[in-house]
Amino acid sequence: MARKLRVGVIFGGRSGEHDVSLRSAESIISAMDKSKYEVVPIGITNEGRWLVSGNATALLPQAVMASNSHQQVAIIGDPTRQGLTRLEEGEQALSSEPLDAVFPVLHGTYGEDGTIQGLLEMAGVPYVGCGVLASATGMDKVAMKQLFERDGLAVVEYEWFLRSSWEAGPEVVIERISQSLGFPVFVKPANLGSSVGISKATNEKDLRDAVNDAARYDRKIVVERAVDGREIEVSILGNEHPIASLPGEIIVGHEFYDYEDKYIDSASRTDVPAKLPLSIIEQIQRDGIRAFKAIDGSGLARVDFFVESGTGRVIINEINTMPGFTSISMYPKLWEASGIPYSELIDRLIQLAIERHGDKSRNLTSYKPRG
User: Fold this and answer.
1) Rounded to 5 degrees, what angle do the CA atoms 232, 322, 287 make?
2) pTM of the model
3) Under 8 Å between Cβ of 206 and 255
4) Closest CA to 124 of 366, 347, 353, 367
5) Where are the domains of the chain?
6) What does the alpha-carbon distance between residue 213 and residue 188 come to, in Å, rounded to a whole number?
């Protein structure tokens, strides 16, 4: 009988999407085949403290987050350990526990932005999802759009600025946006997801309020023209040869697909697969893969599009390099509709992580002259 793979599932974190991460992790751990995996749930508190619980079969994320101090752990950037280091009071290392792979189910800052990926690279541990570069550029809506534009993908018209510029001269920023984009517009923190900090502005007063709200979450703010159209999403899976799922449609219950609509009152609904002409489906699948490759993606991503009313133009909105895995999340739903059930999807993602790590391990880390 094959040895079980020891897989750490990291969740929580210092992010505005902390609670979303808990929901995703709970779904993933419940669905992991315990005959294949020894699951090690690893919680990160809002303050950034790492905790572990061995009770994976009856995981309740809230209980893990309330674990006692003697269960504190860390992953340190030492590839000879390749896993968890248990700590005691005073942070004296007690022992190392190797991990075969890590599933970092962390959304937003300190999780989806390349930071945890950099730590796992330093530690020499295979991990699910995109690497440092793809995670960082996929998280930053400005860098993301610039890469998409360079690759010839149609993006929503936008402006961006720093919080410091806004605080130094809000009237200048308002005038610029009014002239270049007009109204209505959407205002977003550049480095958050799950619609946290996003507002719609239909006039200058709304814009001022929306920017002030977005600036609570990030130093970089993006303002986008509001697109009148259908919201379509596609899931991507793979490393160097990614595949795209059938697309699905979000039919919003609020004025737009905000945090409350996604996670609280569930006013929206989904249409999976989306009812679209074959030519549009194929374009969305092609463009989803192009977007994934444009940021050098690996493992997984969900790519969000608009199909503009009137013109039928396909416009890319954004890419999410660690999309939600909750029971209402589109990423697994789209693969289910495309013939890959949830548990198999998790298997594939873990295998892709191990394959990518093996390929990267071929790289020399010191100079050796040829011959």
Assistant:
1) 40
2) 0.88
3) no
4) 353
5) 5-127, 138-154+228-359, 158-225
6) 9
